[in-house]
Specification:
This protein has a domain of 62 residues: YefM-like fold, CATH 3.40.1620. It starts with a strand and ends with a helix. A hairpin with a 2-residue loop joins strand 2 and strand 3. It is α+β, with helices and mostly antiparallel strands and 96 residues long. The protein is 34% helix and 15% strand.
């Protein structure tokens, strides 16, 4: 389906719903195709498995893999947090 930029702007929610449902929408400007609107596919649907995800994470310089044989643990000194609502915890954190 083709839709002009003006039509897309006027009825964006409708076209987003249609794209989410699987329809491919070609956006045109002055009769020329300039973009395509389509649904985002889930990683599992693309066949990306756990091994590939780990490889991608390992290529990121800000991600450090754990050392061999190490275990995940929490803080040696966890902060005590009172039970209650978010508001009560916020008040406690602010010292009120």
């Amino acid at each position: 389906m083709e839709v002009s930029v003006r039509e897309l702007k006027n009825r964006l929610s409708e076209y987003l719903r249609r794209a989410q449902a699987g329809e491919r929408i070609v956006v045109t400007s002055r009769g020329r195709a300039v973009a395509t609107l389509s649904a985002v596919s889930a990683p599992d649907a693309e066949g990306v498995g756990e091994d590939e995800v780990v490889r991608r994470l390992n290529r990121m310089p800000w991600i450090r893999p754990p050392k061999q044989g190490s275990t995940v643990r929490g803080s040696d000194r966890p902060t005590p947090v009172p039970d209650g609502t978010v508001e009560a915890i916020t008040d406690w954190m602010r010292g009120e």
